[in-house]
């Protein structure tokens, strides 16, 4: 059961905010939903957007300017929160790159995180079923994309759940989390010290072991003035893995662009068109 918290007209459609109690996390969760004008006449494909560190369910819909493109292509936009909230974990809010708003979209296995930080189950299993049953979403026609930590989540979940998402793209993703400080910190906290097990949640390593999982192609955009490019993101590792897996990849490198929402709003129209073509 979902509760409508707010609703606003936007580009002829409706921008909504919902809350519900999640079976996966055991806590209330929020997500935003943009229903394009076409949704008034029947089910439409949906695109789940996973936001980055420190963000929530409203950051993307307020900052990215995506609704006008979604209205044009008849896509519903779903933006879930970036972590459970209210878990009662003291250290959850002490760091910006771990815990609150920093779930890395995984199911934690170590205490105290394992009780509520089950975002993989929430995003890949519970949320698609929820929106297909409660909103005018065309069944089986869901794509996924994300930015930074959310880009990691989108690529990783698409590869770990074949058939769940029909299209995938990312903006400045943490493409090889086992190779960067953000990813190593998060994985050590959520999975413990078994480094070999981390590979199951690293998009580059998952892709290297795959075989053309998305034959219609994956789109990734990266700003070349991104301050996190060299230390945290490693898009070349994902590019190499796609080459090994014979996965069609369009990795676009953009001089002058950084990591923030000005970068996202510059290319979000291309991403929505990418998903619309495949959905």
TrEMBL record:
Q: Which domain of life is it from?
A: Bacteria
Supply one GO BP term: formaldehyde catabolic process
Q: Record's InterPro entries?
A: AB_hydrolase_fold, Esterase-like, S-formylglutathione_hydrol
- Keywords for this entry? Hydrolase, Serine esterase
Q: Which reaction does it catalyse?
A: S-formylglutathione + H2O = formate + glutathione + H(+)
GO molecular function annotations of the record: carboxylic ester hydrolase activity; S-formylglutathione hydrolase activity
Q: Which residues form the active site?
A: 148, 226, 259
Question: Glycoprotein: is it a keyword of this entry?
Answer: no
Matching entries from SUPFAM superfamilies are given as: alpha/beta-Hydrolases
For this protein, what is the EC number?
3.1.2.12
Pfam families reported in the protein's UniProt record: Esterase
One GO CC term of this entry?
cytosol
The entry assigns this protein to a family as follows: Belongs to the esterase D family.
User: Tell me, what does this protein do in biology?
Assistant: Serine hydrolase involved in the detoxification of formaldehyde.
Please state what the protein is called: S-formylglutathione hydrolase
Species assigned in the record: Cupriavidus necator (strain ATCC 43291 / DSM 13513 / CCUG 52238 / LMG 8453 / N-1)
Q: What is the lineage of its organism?
A: Bacteria, Pseudomonadati, Pseudomonadota, Betaproteobacteria, Burkholderiales
């Amino acid at each position: 059961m979902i509760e409508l918290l707010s609703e606003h007209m936007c580009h002829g459609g409706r921008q909504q905010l919902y809350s519900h109690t999640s079976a996966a996390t055991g806590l209330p969760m929020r997500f935003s939903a943009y229903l394009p004008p076409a949704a008034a006449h029947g089910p439409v494909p949906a695109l789940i957007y996973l936001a980055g560190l420190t963000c929530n369910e409203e950051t993307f819909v307020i900052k990215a300017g995506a609704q006008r493109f979604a209205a044009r292509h008849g896509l519903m936009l779903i933006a879930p929160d970036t972590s459970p909230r209210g878990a009662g974990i003291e250290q959850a809010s002490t760091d910006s790159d771990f815990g609150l708003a920093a779930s890395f979209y995984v199911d934690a296995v170590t205490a105290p995180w394992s009780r509520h930080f089950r975002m993989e189950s929430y995003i890949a299993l519970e949320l698609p079923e929820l929106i297909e049953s409660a909103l005018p979403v065309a069944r089986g026609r869901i794509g996924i994309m994300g930015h930074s930590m959310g880009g990691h989540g989108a690529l990783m979940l698409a590869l770990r759940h074949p058939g769940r998402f029909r299209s995938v793209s990312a903006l400045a993703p943490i493409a090889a989390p086992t190779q960067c400080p953000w990813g190593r910190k998060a994985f050590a906290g959520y999975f413990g010290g078994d480094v070999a097990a981390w590979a199951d949640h690293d998009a580059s390593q998952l892709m290297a072991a795959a075989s053309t999982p998305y034959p219609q192609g994956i789109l990734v955009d990266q700003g070349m003035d991104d301050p996190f490019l060299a230390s945290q993101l490693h898009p070349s590792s994902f590019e190499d893995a796609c080459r090994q897996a014979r996965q069609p990849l369009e990795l676009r490198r953009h001089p002058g662009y950084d990591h923030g929402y000005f970068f996202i709003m510059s290319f979000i129209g291309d991403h929505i068109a990418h998903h619309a073509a495949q959905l």
